[in-house]
Design a protein that fits this description.
The structure is a homodimer of 230-residue chains.
Chain A lengths: L20 E12 L2 E8 L9 E2 L2 E3 L6 H13 L5 E8 L10 E10 L17 E5 L10 H18 L11 E2 H12 L5 H10 L3 E8 L7 E6 L6
Parallel strand pairs in A: 1-6
Antiparallel strand pairs in A: 1-2, 1-4, 2-3, 2-7, 5-6, 8-10, 9-10
Chain A binds a DNA duplex (27 and 27 nucleotides) through helix 4.
Chain lengths: 230, 230
DNA sequence: TCAAAAGTGTTCCGAATACACCCATGA
DNA sequence: TCATGGGTGTATTCGGAACACTTTTGA
């Protein structure tokens, strides 16, 4: 009604309107010992000083949202080429007591093996730590809700996409893959049924290698077929 | 790396960072004669003057994103209490040649019967028109991609939610409901299978009314059970 | 009586589930 | 030889897909 910007018939300039701050936050997940873990940073300043938060930062004016998220991700983990997908945009007034902040949230899945060497190598100024996803400390802002939403999204996408593979190395055993599914769904799966279902989709192929680890039969290693996304 | 905002250890103020413009755009869909239709407004100014675009506007500093979308929706359709859901946030630099504009896109589904009286009553300054979703004119900005994305989302959600009902009046026939599903999926469904499947979910109940329309057998009217969302 | 949409059942097939034992290895 | 995780098959149940005729109404 009285919002000038909503009437395309009028001449207006974007500069005439107040502009909120826009940040990108990233929910970064990995899988260690069959358990999903989430990277959090401890806040040093008001508001929520001392509390944990998901990493994030302001976007630059000349970069895409996804680029800002990738940049954030690399700063926190030291790793490039990580699976990343937009989750949701949170922008309630008051979610940040400082000023109006709209945050575009992404989530990232990363193979834990890629983290071992370089975690936090690029930036040791902030305290960062991996927490078990299902046992988190109190979180700043609306970050608890953001993480809940991420879990719901992950569970949904697990059913009809190959998103689960993003938590694994390029070659993996079927037991490792099953552990991914169990960690995301947070309940056990039947081994025979799981294998039959995965193999029937015809997206995996055996490598000529096996994985020997511990005093038991070696496991067949698989990889994605060439056409599968990675 | 050199992004100060990404380091929570440093003191910073949101005001120190450049702020993009943020808009909310709304993909507004309805169903008329078994066909999905989309509301577009014609642009009068540069850029894309004369082309059609989905309605949108700037957010106010003290309203939520959803509130901005509802406001926009009411301005365009004159109707309140419409189903609305966030779709995705588009923010590539260069998507708007004027300045950096990030748009949070929502989509809305509305029963066509609620539109008959009041369409455009609230605002006759801009030229607005309903187009068949599968036969659209050339669109401004990245709006064609936004609409494609909406269709994909709708098709996905149709399978595991009750989203389809949002295009219908509170009481409806099973044929009308089937028409919704067929329009979104853009292909026909078997009548017997459709009815069995819908009724087996146990979310509908018969009303004590029927709908008589045309020279044929009247149709049973159904409504949602009390616990179903609407 | 005709045209038009409403309403109704059965068969078939593939996917999901439940369930238990042998295999290969290192210690 | 034992402990450990890898690897395999069958029977049952459930849901999805294919398919055609009768019913009720207004014209």
């Amino acid at each position: 009604m009285s919002q000038p910007a909503t009437d395309p018939a009028k001449t207006y300039r974007a500069e005439d309107f107040p502009r909120p701050s826009v940040t990108v936050d990233v929910v970064i997940l990995t899988l260690v010992e069959g358990e999903l873990r989430l990277l959090l940073v401890r806040r040093r300043n008001w508001p929520f000083a001392g509390m944990w938060a998901i990493p994030g930062g302001f976007i630059n004016m000349d970069e895409s949202l996804e680029h800002a998220a990738l940049r954030e991700l690399e700063e926190e983990t030291g790793v490039r080429d990580i699976f990343l997908e937009q989750l949701y945009t949170f922008g309630d007034p008051g979610r940040d007591p400082r000023t109006r902040v709209i945050t575009v949230v992404y989530y990232a899945l990363i193979d834990a093996a890629r983290l071992n060497v370089s975690v936090r190598a690029a930036d040791d100024a902030a305290e960062a730590e991996w927490f078990p996803l299902y046992h988190l400390p109190d979180l700043a802002f609306d970050h608890a809700a953001i993480i809940d939403y991420t879990i719901q999204r992950l569970r949904g996408k697990l059913e009809y996409t190959t998103i689960g593979f993003q938590l694994l190395a390029p070659e993996f055993t079927l037991s490792e893959l099953q552990a991914v599914y169990e960690a995301i769904r947070n309940r056990p799966l039947d081994k025979r049924n799981f294998r039959r279902k995965i193999l029937s989709t015809d997206i995996l192929e055996k490598t000529d290698a096996t994985k020997m680890e511990g005093p038991h039969r070696p496991a067949q290693l698989y990889r994605f077929k060439a056409d599968a996304a990675r």
